[in-house]
Amino acid sequence: MLRKRSRRAVVVLGAALVLLVPAAAQADTMSFSGEFPPIAGQCGPFHDFTIGSDVTAIDAVASAAVPSNDIVLNLHHPQGSIVASADSATSPEALHYPVPPGGAGTYSVQICAAGNAVVLVSPTTYVVQVNTTTAPLPPVGGGGTVPTTISGTPTPTRTAGTLKFAPSTIVDAQRTEGEPLNVIPSATEYWESGPFGTSTQQSWVHRSTDNGLEFHTVSPVGLRPDAPPGGGDTDIVTDDQGYAYFSDLEALTNVGVAVSNDHGGTWRKSAISNPEVVEDRQWMATDNGTTAAASDNTVFLALRQIPAGSSIYSTPGSTGATDPVGGVVYIPASGTPLPVSTGSPCGQLKFDPVKRNLYLPCGQADHITIAVAHVNPGQRTNLLFHAVNTPQSPAGDDVSEIFPWLTTDPAGNIYVIWIAGGNGGNNQVYYTASTDEGKSWTTPTQVSTPPANSNTFPVATAPATGRLVVSWLGQSSTLDSDLMPSWFNDKQGATAYPWFGYVATITGANGLTPTIAQQPFTSKPMHYGQICNSGTTCIASGGDRTMADYFDVNFDKAGALRFVYNDTTSQYHGAHLFEIRQLTGKAPAAPMPDPTGDAQWPHYSPTGPGPNQAQLDLTNVDAARTRTGLQFTMSVANLSTRTAPPGKTNALWLTRFTAKSLGTFGEEAYRIFYVGAESQLGGPLSFFVGSGEADTTTPGNGCRSTSTPGNCKIVFYPAEGAATGTVSGNKITITVPYSAWGPKRPLASSATLFSVTGLTFGRNASDDLYADVDASHAFDLKGK
After folding, report:
1. Residues 524-546, mean pLDDT to the nearest whole number
2. pTM of this prediction exceeds 0.70
3. Where are the strands (E) in 333-491, listed by range?
């Protein structure tokens, strides 16, 4: 029986608005507005529109005037039934409906108050945007081509890894950050980026000009590189012009984008890169074209619209600082905002310059589905996507643990990596390879072996043909990471589950006789206990999401592996940011020389780097053991003046390290210890020690939280105890006994000091954002 409808005029969608779509396709848009009753479960009027037989899909987005109002968006079939509905949370709501054959007719959208809505606030008005398209639907999700032939079953040879790694470099001594990414376009250009949290609206970009030996924030004021909003997920890529492209997610709402043409000195931003809403986990990839010119460059942006799926947008590469389009104006790469994949979660977007294919890997139950499009030189839009599927994961295990990863080697071979299991599975790392652009695949091969018995966060890179490097976090228990004790709920119990970074170098990965060499790349634990993989719901249950969702591995222009990762094992349990590089020679050791002329402040600004601060320009850092304690020396270019850098009142010289000790609550921790010297307004130096506590409610107590209690966000270095120090020429010497930090912060003479680093800052008080002027290269000091 047909319902009686309170109709508005029926609208026939024709060619009212033509978007950028393939020549054979049309996309039309219509907007409606109205008001729903302020009573849970009751609905507003029907808004009708008619489509022809050539329409292939309907997309609709509804936004309440008051975003907190919990609404439901329904799409009604011509015969009256609801064919699609969106009720994910509060406003906005979005739905995607592929129109079946014979589906022409009059449809309706209707807005209702959710049946479980607790409070509905006036006004209860809304707007609805409906989009239709006649473009052919791309194969999505499980509808891709299933491999008809498998390249074969690899028989791996396993061996212990023999790679050597340097002591870890402190990327940022103050800011914590989740989900770090690294991009290394040259020996003098190393970029890192990651989010700080949507509660802060901040995300960070760091840049190194000395191949990752020291990093500085790309900001003259120590904040995000471009204006808020943001703080959710980030990505950063570069092109062959040296231009940087940055994207940031605002609380599952909008993806903002920005471009810098001066290596981070200035940024131009668009806060809304696309018209979709309720977005998640964007990724970027660069096509540098076939020439050295900027005109054939393209930046691709993939994002997931909830619940429709993942779409891909594109922008021309920037042509310079006056370009109003390149890097900030994005349009659908396929000619329509329809999703290219409904799989979830989706890993990093990859462009292969050899085969000129764009790949987006997404989880799909027991396998990975990959959206693929061939990109002709200079092509940015009208890409035709199709889907290919990897073989089924062993034993049909779920592959939805974040994130599936895809990489290509210099011959265009594809490698896909994932965690098999989770929620009762075996939590092992697997890979499969394709030498024919995804038409056929090798049988999945297990990469991880004991002692990496439970694993998460797989990432990969392929620096040479047939050479695949897979990295992940692993620990010796077979327990699923979600089932381990959370540090927030059981600190002592969590330390029984230490996590290490692992790497496996696979040679012959594109064939059937690979050699897999596995080893840790961290020399100490990087996390304790649960790594909650349930997204933002982890917070409500006291789950531990401090490690966020992934880390990254890449290789530099010399072919050395470079890892950027979080370490939460300090007393603060913050997501401290580190970088580790592969070594070809001896590990660096004390005394550690440091180049002069690299202490500019600011390092990045619209007018370029500021002047070098000779009084804060480290030239050498040393640490040595005495009979009863430790002695640290910091030498600078010129200590005849002790003034702070511009904008700050105090100059600060600091040596920081971590060592195995106890946390604030008596649990095992690799505490952050430091010794320092400080001059106020150019006056005499005062010498001090410190190792703050995880009390985020007391200003100046070592670490500050923002909106989440107990969540370390910014590390400070207050003077907590006096130390013995001297000045001789340009050298500062500080001597302390092992007991200098007190009995609750034990430092054994046998403890290795990790990542010993000299740092110079300017600050107004101990608990502000410092001017990060200079940093020495890191070294470890072995215990007695």
Report:
1. 83
2. yes
3. 350-352, 357-364, 367-374, 385-389, 405-408, 414-420, 428-434, 441-442, 445-446, 454-464, 467-475
